[in-house]
Specification:
single chain; mainly alpha; 3-stranded mixed beta sheet; 3 strands; 10% strand
Length: 300
C-alpha cells in the first residue's frame, strides 16, 4: 500500500536525525571541554536528549506500519500521533531548560572566555541542523507524516539553540555576555511555542477532531453525487495520516440494491480522488416525504 510505503520512507528522516544528533553531540562536547565553552557543552547535552525524541518518532513510524490485527481493527496508525505527543513533551523540557539557564545566567558571575573555534562549531552545527530540518519537513509534507513533522520542528529548535550558543560565545569573546541571555530567552520562547503547537495538534487528532472546513467540502462533494437526495449524516476523523469518513445519504426508495450500490461507489471514488489516503463508509437510506434535515444542518 502507498500508505505503508510512505511510513517506511519516513524512517529515513528519523534515522538522519538520530545519526546527526549523535555525531554533533560528540563533537560539540569534546570541543566544549577543550575550548572552555559551557554554552557548547550544554548544546551537546541538549542533542543527547533529542536522540530520545527521534527514537520515539522512529518507533512510532515502525509501529504504524503494522497491519490491522484482532485488537486493532483499524491498524496501528495512531502510534505515529502518540510519537508526536512524546516529541512535544521532550521539546517542552528542552525549552524550559533553555529558559531557566538563561534566567540563571543573569545572576551568575563571569565565566572563563571560550575559544573562538567553539563559536564556529556551534554555528556549523546550527546550519547542519537547519539542513536536516528542511529535509525532514519536506519529507513529512510529501508522505503526510505528523510524527516526522514533529521531528522536523525539533530539528529546527536545535538549530536555533546552536545558533544561539554561537551568538552567546561571540558575545562572551567580545565582552557582551548579555547577548547570550537575550538570544537564549528568544530561543526558549520559540521552542516552547513549537512544542505547544505539536501538542495541540496531536491531542486534537487523538480526540477525533476534524477540520470543519474540510468536513464541509467533503460533505458537499458527497451530496453533489447524482442520485443522492440528501446528506443525512457526516463524520470524519484522522487516524495517523489516514482519514476515516462515515456518512449517510438518502436515495430514491424505488432504486434496487445494485443501483443504490453504484451511488455509494461514486461517492467513494469522488472522495478518494480528493483524499487518496482515505477510507469512506457510505450508508444508504430511502428518502421518504417530509424528512426535513438539510445538508447544512448535518455539518453543524
Amino acid at each position: 500500500m502507498d500508505l505503508y510505503s510512505n511510513l517506511k520512507q519516513g524512517e529515513r528522516g528519523a534515522w538522519l536525525s538520530i545519526t546527526t544528533y549523535l555525531i554533533l553531540s560528540t563533537v560539540k562536547f569534546i570541543a566544549g571541554v577543550a575550548g572552555s565553552s559551557e554554552a557548547l557543552k550544554a548544546d551537546a547535552l541538549n542533542n543527547t536528549t533529542d536522540v530520545i525524541a527521534s527514537v520515539a518518532v522512529l518507533i512510532g513510524l515502525r509501529i504504524s506500519q503494522k497491519p490491522p490485527d484482532d485488537n486493532h481493527r483499524y491498524g496501528h496508525l495512531r502510534a505515529e500521533t502518540i510519537a508526536s505527543l512524546i516529541a512535544s513533551f521532550i521539546m517542552a523540557a528542552v525549552g524550559i531548560q533553555v529558559l531557566t539557564d538563561a534566567i540563571g545566567s543573569i545572576y551568575s558571575e563571569g565565566a572563563q572566555t571560550p575559544s573562538p573555534y567553539t563559536g564556529f562549531i556551534a554555528l556549523a552545527s546550527g546550519l547542519i541542523m537547519y539542513a536536516v530540518y528542511r529535509y525532514n519537513l519536506r519529507l513529512s509534507k510529501k508522505i503526510g507524516s505528523s510524527a516526522l513533522r514533529a521531528a522536523a520542528l525539533d530539528n529546527r529548535a536545535d538549530a536555533l539553540v546552536s545558533l544561539g550558543a554561537a551568538a552567546g560565545i561571540a558575545g562572551a569573546i567580545f565582552g557582551y555576555p548579555v547577548i547570550d541571555t537575550i538570544t537564549a530567552l528568544i530561543i526558549a520562547m520559540l521552542i516552547l511555542f513549537a512544542a505547544a503547537s505539536i501538542f495541540k495538534e496531536a491531542v486534537y487528532t487523538l480526540t477525533d477532531g476534524f477540520d470543519e472546513e474540510e468536513g464541509e467540502a467533503l460533505a458537499h462533494l458527497a451530496a453533489s453525487v447524482p442520485g443522492v437526495i440528501r446528506l443525512k449524516d457526516f463524520k470524519g476523523r484522522m487516524h495517523g495520516n489516514m482519514i476515516f469518513i462515515d456518512l449517510t445519504v438518502t436515495v430514491d426508495p424505488s432504486l434496487n440494491v445494485i443501483e443504490s450500490h453504484r451511488i455509494t461507489e461514486q461517492i467513494e471514488r469522488r472522495m478518494q480522488k480528493v483524499k487518496p489516503l482515505s477510507t469512506v463508509l457510505v450508508h444508504i437510506e430511502p428518502e421518504f416525504p417530509n424528512q426535513g434535515l438539510s445538508t447544512k444542518s448535518v455539518l453543524k
